[in-house]
Amino acid sequence: MSSDTHFTDFKSDKQPTWCPGCGDFGTMNGMMKALAETGNDPDNTFLVAGIGCSGKIGTYMHSYALHGVHGRALPVGTGVKLANPDLEVMVAGGDGDGYSIGVGHFIHAVRRNIDITYVVMDNRIYGLTKGQASPTSRQGFETATSPEGTVEPPVNPQALALAAGGTFIAQSFSSDSQRHAELVQQAIEHDGFGFVNVYSPCVTFNDVDTYDYFRDAIVDLEETDHDPGNYEAAKDRIMDPGTEHIGILYQNEDSVPFSEREGIDRNMADIPDGAPERADRLVREFY
Ligand code: SF4
Question: What positions does the domain Thiamine pyrophosphate enzyme TPP-binding occupy (predicted)?
């Protein structure tokens, strides 16, 4: 780790192919700033990305990275952290990746309280596949796959995280770059699973959840009397429909990360003698 890393050190030489104005630019910049501010550098950082426009981030950032399978970024990130606890592990994806096909992994990563950071670029639509309703699309939203409007109410990611025992639950806005970076930084510094849902507008396929909409609607919890340590207050905020919050909704200061839980008494990287050979033999015999 280096204390003199600049956030641009996390930029790769690849030119992003995101649409001009996509919220994912701001989300990525904030993540890079937060990593640099917390004393990390590309050599100790591992980024696992899901599938979707957001998933391309692993190519645009300079660090160890894996662009995985749809919805499976969190179990991969969990494995990376268990294998090498010294790495700073960040998992990134979108609302389609994380709250639809990946929602089971989300809940279990939350309750496991593994010490990684999960950043979700929530644009409330499937962008890469050209504009279908996603799990966080609002009810009544008209898309190619819901021409008369979506029927289901949207998934509430913070409610899922709180119900699963989340210890750090925050939300940010990609366009508010300083605040977004601060919140990702706090998620990295948290002892346990740091979850940040980011309003990251899709300027091409979502003409409802726009920058203008969020700028008008957002309430920054830091400017209210909200106490993130108060579970009941967090629950009330999270279950408050129609209010777009940014800030830390809930943080358990007594969080015990997975690696320090009773019964977890050894580094998973300490592979028992002969285990790789036995695994290799098993696979070969099976096939
Ligand atoms: Fe961003 Fe939407 Fe373009 Fe995808 S389609 S790059 S989410 S603006």
Answer: 51-198
At 234-272, the pLDDT tens digits run: 999 999 877 899 999 999 999 999 988 877 765 566 667
Q: Is the CB of 256 under 6 A from ligand 1?
A: no
Average pLDDT over residues 174-194: 98
* E strand spans, 60-217: 64-67, 88-94, 117-122, 168-173, 194-199
Q: What is the ipTM of this complex?
A: 0.99
| Domain contains 2 | no
76 belongs to a structural domain? yes
> Where in the sequence is the domain holding 182, given as residue range(s)?
7-286
User: Nearest CA to 212 among 182, 175, 264?
Assistant: 175
> How many domains are contained in the chain?
1
Which CATH number does the domain housing residue 46 bear? Answer: 3.40.50.970
N- to C-terminal Cα separation, the chain: 42
What six digits make up the tokens of 199?
A: 């309003």
| Cβ(96)–Cβ(134) below 8 Å | yes
**206 CA: nearest ligand 1 atom:** 2
Q: Answer yes or no: are the C-beta atoms of 114 and 78 closer than 8 Å.
A: yes
Q: What is the pLDDT of residues 126-173, one digit of tens each?
A: 999 999 999 999 999 999 889 999 999 999 999 999 999 999 999 999
The label of the residue with tokens 């309430």 reads 219
Q: Indicate if ligand 1 lies below 6 Å from the C-beta of 107.
A: no
Q: Which of 73, 112, 108 has the alpha carbon at shortest distance from 258?
A: 112
| Triad 208, 244, 74: Cα angle to 5° | 90
SS3 label, residue 57: helix
Asked, for residue 39, whether it belongs to a domain, the answer is yes
**Ligand 1 contact, 57 CB (< 6 A):** no
